[in-house]
Amino acid sequence: MAILKRIVSDLELMFRRPPKQQFAALCYRETKTGLLEVLLITSRDTGRWVIPKGWPMGSKKSHLVAQREAYEEAGVKGKIAKTSLGSYFYMKGMPDGLKIPCEVKVYLLEVREFVDDYPEKGTRILEWVSCDVAASRVQEPQLKRLFHLLSLSRQRNAANAG
Q1: Whole-angstrom Cα Rg for the chain
Q2: Is 12 within a domain?
Q3: Which residue segment(s) compose the domain that 101 sits in?
Q4: How buried is 25 (Cβ within 10 angstroms: 0-12 exposed, 13-18 middle, 19+ buried)?
Q5: What is the pLDDT of residues 53-110, one digit of tens each?
Q6: Distance from chain centroid for Cα 158
Q7: Alpha carbon distances (Å) from 57 to 2, 3, 63, 64, 85
Q8: For the Nudix hydrolase domain, which residue ranges apply (predicted)?
Q9: What share of the chain is helix, strand, coil (3-state, %, to 5)?
């Protein structure tokens, strides 16, 4: 039995492809009362809670791809960080039923504007929630950690300012 497990493991390694790359925007805002909120949207296929993300766009820089996806999928615009907050992995379901591994680099986007008309309007549910609520809704463990990281850094900044 151990030999069979070893063969299966070796075959998996042989056929494993590197993950496909995607870029995402973790959109946030501060409420009038000073609370931090993040934007979650539903995926169009499964209805899972996610953040705006997409595939590379030619030679466009990754943070600008994330910014563009936030506009197209959620109708938000703002200031995007040029460096990634971190990344997470997930298995992307393709139309043919195949699942492919994806690494998603996440960039913070401070939302400053909402537009009424955007490409994917009406195809997703959008909701502003706390980092804790967002972490409880998304499925990917590494994305949950990014929400907690954002919340902690915000708390540290508030403590240092006070």
Answers
A1: 18
A2: no
A3: 17-161
A4: buried
A5: 999 999 999 999 999 999 999 999 999 999 999 999 999 888 888 888 999 999 999 9
A6: 25
A7: 45, 44, 11, 9, 20
A8: 18-151
A9: 35, 35, 30
The 3-class SS string of 30-98 reads: ECCCCCEEEEEEECCCCCCEECCEECCCCCCCHHHHHHHHHHHHHCEEEEECCCCCEEEEEEEECCCCC
Kindly state whether residue 8 falls inside one of the protein's structural domains.
no
pLDDT, one tens digit per residue, over 49-60 is 999 999 999 999
- CB-based burial, 89-110: b 16+ in 10 Å, e otherwise: ebebeeeeeeeeebebbbbbbe
CATH of the domain at 98: 3.90.79.10
Q: Establish if 135 belongs to a structural domain.
A: yes
Domain membership of residue 49 (yes or no) is: yes
The count of domains in the chain is: 1
Residue for token pair 């907690």: 148
Tell me phi and psi for residue 21, to 5 degrees. Answer: -100, 135
Q: What span, in angstroms and rounded, lies between the C-alpha atoms of 92 and 102?
A: 7
